């Protein structure tokens, strides 16, 4: 199936902007519209080099605005890939209402608008966090693992997943859900774990590590994730869920030490801090379904992916320093 006119939500964020880059680099005969609210994590610089590309269009609008969503979706898109979401767990603990509005209400608006249009495919991007937490020897999450979210963020994503599922089963809307493990790579907002480690290590600053640092995550390079989403878009079956995992389980402490070693920085920068509220112990993805049914495989090993990511942040210091400075100004105004 061919999709030439695509609507991407949240395309100025980390994964969304990488996916748009992937599409525009891979296909010549497509039109991509980026629907983004330009929240703190949406950065126009992420796609600055595509602003003059006639295949790329930007719409500044918020999914919580049902009228704007309906107006945009009615413009005859072949497919929608829905990345837009509030995604930082710490922020969800501080302000869960914002996550409900964007992730739940926003997704509802998008699905309702799609029901009125001839959309051939909708990919709803979710997370492995909706499955809850695993113990050390538990088997990895499969698509049949019951949803058991433990944070306001993951609860809002699980809620949006259920809305997407209901839209397929009730109205026949051609929705596919993907659930990925932790992503890393270029253009990731500095507040996330790996960019935080890199940028603080580069500056010689203490690196905060929650609890004992032994929480485990399955790491997936954003490039492998983009390839998987593209494959699901073109070959996935509506109504299905596909787990996308990197098969790279690491403790947070192992990730920190790996980055410090890559940068040639001392482990003495590691500073243990009080654990996050409700911190899930372990995530792990079983991606056998997407492998066997669609033929996807992650290509980038974690060690090589980390080296490439560190190198990107070193070479793009002006990119992340501008974000850090802007956030510090915002925090200063909020505290004054």
What would CATH call the homologous superfamily of the domain at 5-187 and 220-246 and 278-300? NAD(P)-binding Rossmann-like Domain
CATH topology name of the domain at 5-187 and 220-246 and 278-300, in short, is Rossmann fold
Order of helices and strands: EHEEHEHHEHEEHEEHEEHEHHH
Briefly note the structural class of the backbone: alpha/beta
- Low-pLDDT sequence parts: none
Number of strands: 12
What does the largest sheet look like?
7 strands, parallel
The radius of gyration computed from the alpha-carbon positions, rounded to a whole number of angstroms, is 19 Å
Average pLDDT works out at 95
Strand order, main sheet: write it out. 3-2-1-4-5-6-10
What would CATH call the class of the domain at 5-187 and 220-246 and 278-300? Alpha Beta
Q: How far apart, in Å, are the first and last alpha carbons?
A: 54 Å
- Please tell me the CATH architecture of the domain at 5-187 and 220-246 and 278-300 by its name: 3-Layer(aba) Sandwich
Helix content: 40-55%
Strand content: 15-25%
Helix count, DSSP H or I runs of 4 or more residues: 11
Characterize the overall form.
Answer: globular
Describe this structure in words.
- The chain is of the alpha/beta class.
- It has a domain of 233 residues: Rossmann fold.
- It is built from eleven helices and twelve strands.
- The strands form three sheets. It has a seven-stranded parallel beta sheet, with helices on both faces.
- β1, α1 and β2 form a beta-alpha-beta unit.
- α1 packs across α7 and α4 packs parallel to α5.
- It is globular.
- The protein starts with a strand and ends with a helix.
- It catalyses: dTDP-alpha-D-glucose = dTDP-4-dehydro-6-deoxy-alpha-D-glucose + H2O.
- GO terms for molecular function: dTDP-glucose 4,6-dehydratase activity.
- Keywords: Lyase, NAD.
- It comes from Paenibacillus roseus.
- It holds the Pfam family GDP_Man_Dehyd.
């Amino acid at each position: 199936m061919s999709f030439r006119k695509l609507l991407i939500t949240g395309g100025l964020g980390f994964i969304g902007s990488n996916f748009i880059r992937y599409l525009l680099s891979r296909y010549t005969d497509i039109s991509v519209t980026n629907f983004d609210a330009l929240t703190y994590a949406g950065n126009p610089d992420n796609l600055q080099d595509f602003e003059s590309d006639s295949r790329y269009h930007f719409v500044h609008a918020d999914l919580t605005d049902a009228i704007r969503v309906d107006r945009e979706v009615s413009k005859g898109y072949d497919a929608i890939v829905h990345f837009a979401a509030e995604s930082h767990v710490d922020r969800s603990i501080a302000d869960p209402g914002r996550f409900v509005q964007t992730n739940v209400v926003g997704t509802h608006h998008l699905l309702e608008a799609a029901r009125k249009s001839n959309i051939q495919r909708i990919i709803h991007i979710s997370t492995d966090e909706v499955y809850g937490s695993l113990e050390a020897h538990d088997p990895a999450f499969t698509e049949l693992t019951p949803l058991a979210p433990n944070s306001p963020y993951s609860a809002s994503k699980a809620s949006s997943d259920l809305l997407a599922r209901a839209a397929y089963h009730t109205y026949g809307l051609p929705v596919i859900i993907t659930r990925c493990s932790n992503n890393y790579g270029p253009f990731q907002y500095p507040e996330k774990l790996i960019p935080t480690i890199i940028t603080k290590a580069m500056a010689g600053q203490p690196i905060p590590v929650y609890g004992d640092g032994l929480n485990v995550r399955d790491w997936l390079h954003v490039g492998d994730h983009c390839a998987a989403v593209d494959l699901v878009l073109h070959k996935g079956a509506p109504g299905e869920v596909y787990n996308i995992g990197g098969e790279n389980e690491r403790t947070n402490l192992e990730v920190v030490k790996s980055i410090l070693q890559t940068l040639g920085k001392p482990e003495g920068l590691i500073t243990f801090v009080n654990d996050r509220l409700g911190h899930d112990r372990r995530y792990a993805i079983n991606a056998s379904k997407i492998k066997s049914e669609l033929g996807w495989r992650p290509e980038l090993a974690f060690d090589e992916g980390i080296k490439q990511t560190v190198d990107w942040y070193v070479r793009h210091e002006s990119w992340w320093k501008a974000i850090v400075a802007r956030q510090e100004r915002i925090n200063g105004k909020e505290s004054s």
